[in-house]
Amino acid sequence: MIKKEMIAMLLAGGQGSRLGILTSKVAKPAVAFGGKYRIIDFPLSNCINSGIDTVGVLTQYQPLRLNTHIGIGIPWDLDRNVGGVTILPPYEKNTNSEWYTGTANAIYQNIDYMDMYNPDYILILSGDHIYKMDYEVMLDFHKANHADVTIAAMPVPYEEAKRFGILITDEDRMITDFEEKPEKPRSNLASMGIYIFNWPILKEALIKNADQSGLDFGKHVIPYCHKNGNREFAYEYNGYWKDVGTLSSYWEANMELIDIIPEFNLYEEYWKIYTKSNALPPQYISGSSVIEKSIIGEGTNIYGKVYNSVIGCNITIGKDTIVRDSIIMNEAEIGDSCTIDKAIIAENARIGNNVVLGAGEEVENETDPTIYTHGMVTIGESSVIPDGITIGKNTMVSGETVASDYDGNFLASGKTFVKAGDK
Fold it and tell me: pTM here?
C-alpha cells in the first residue's frame, strides 16, 4: 500500500467572475501573471519547494488551458510514478453525479483519490492566491500542537476584517471561535483558506456533512470540527499574500512586482517559481525603444516606449507606441503610434495603429461598476481594436471589433462593448 505523510488538494475550479472578461474563456488560476507565469504556478511551486510531491488539482470551470498548462507536472518536478500531480475534474458516478457545488464538496467527491495514498494529513489550498509559503513549517506547527485542524491566518486591518472568515484564538493560538465575514469583527486574524487536517478527522467531517448544499469549509466543515471538540489552531503567516480576485487587486499585484524593492520577489534563488515555458527566442529591444521599470517576457519585440508595465511573452509593441502602467499578456500585438495608459490587454489581442486606450476623465462603468474601476481599460482575449480608435477609462471591449462599431472612432469612458457573436 502506498503511504504519503501529507498530500495537497488544490482547488482550481473557480470562475473568478470578479475578474470580468479576463475569465470568460479561462479558469481564474490559469490567468497569466507577472509576465511569464499563471496564477496556479505559485501554490504548485510552494508545494514542491515544501517537499510535497503529491497534488490533486480540482478543476471545473473552463479547464482546458489549465490542463494544458499543468500537463503531467514536469516544470514543478511533479511527474512521478507514485504521486505527482493529478487533474481531478468532476466525473460521472453510478449515483447522484453532480458538479462540484462548494469547496468542501469538491474534496468530498475525491475521497477515493485521497484514500489511495493513505495520508496522515491533507493540505487544502486555493489555486488563486499569490504568495510563497513553506507548508512544511505549517505542518511542524500542526504536529507540535497536536492539532486536528490548522488554519493559516494573517492579520488584516480591522476595517477590512469583515470581508474574511475571522479566527478568535487564545494565547496559545488555539481557535476558540470562528466568524464568517462578521459585521463587527472581534479579531483581525483572517483565514487564508489554507488548511491542514488530520485525514480521519476531515474524512469524517466530509461524510457527515455530505448532504449540505454547497458544502463549504468556512461555512460547514470548520464549524462542524469545532463543535465536535476537535483541536483547531491558527498558524499565523506574516509574509506577502495577495488574493488577486478583482481586476484592481490583479493589476496592483502585477505592479508590485516591478517596485524598486518588490515586496514579492520573483528572483529569489532559494524559492523558485516554476512554470511551463515554451521554447521562445530572447527579447528584442530596438535602438529607438525606451524601457523603464518593467518586466519583459521572452520572445517579445519592443520598438516603442514602455514604462512601469508587465509585458508577457511573444508580444510585439510597435514603433512610436507608448505603454504606461499596463499589463499585456502573451501573444498580444500592439501597432505603431499608440498610447496605452493603465490597460489590461488579454492574450492574443490585436491593437491596430494610432489607437489610444485610457483617454479622458473617469466615469463609472455602465454595466459592471464594481469590476471595471480605477480608470482601467480592459481588452478581452483575442479581441481586435482597429486602427485610429480612442477608448476612455473604466471601459471593457471584447470581440473582433471593426471601425463601424465605434461612433466617430470613439468609445467613451464607462462604456462596455461586447461584439455580437463573441461569447
Answer: 0.92
The whole-angstrom separation of Cα 346 and Cα 362 is 21
Q: What residues have CB less than 8 Å from 365, skipping those under 6 apart?
A: 371, 372, 373, 394, 395, 396, 414, 415, 416
Say how far apart CA 321 and CA 255 lie, in whole Å.
20
The pLDDT tens digits along the chain (423 residues) read 688 999 999 998 777 778 888 888 888 888 999 998 999 999 999 999 999 999 999 888 777 778 888 877 877 878 877 788 888 887 666 566 567 777 888 899 899 999 999 999 999 998 889 999 999 999 999 999 999 999 999 998 888 888 888 999 999 999 998 888 888 889 999 999 999 999 999 999 999 998 888 888 888 899 899 999 899 999 999 889 988 888 999 999 999 999 877 888 888 878 888 888 888 899 999 999 999 999 999 999 999 999 999 999 999 999 999 999 999 999 999 999 999 999 999 999 999 999 999 999 999 999 999 999 999 999 999 999 999 999 999 999 999 999 999 999 999 999 999 987 655
Phi, psi of 295, rounded to the nearest 5 degrees: -105, 130
Question: In angstroms, what CA-CA distances link 192 with 124, 130, 235, 304, 315?
Answer: 11, 11, 10, 41, 35
Distance from CA of residue 193 to its chain's centroid? 13
C-alpha distances out from residue 227 to 134, 174, 252, Å: 29, 14, 39
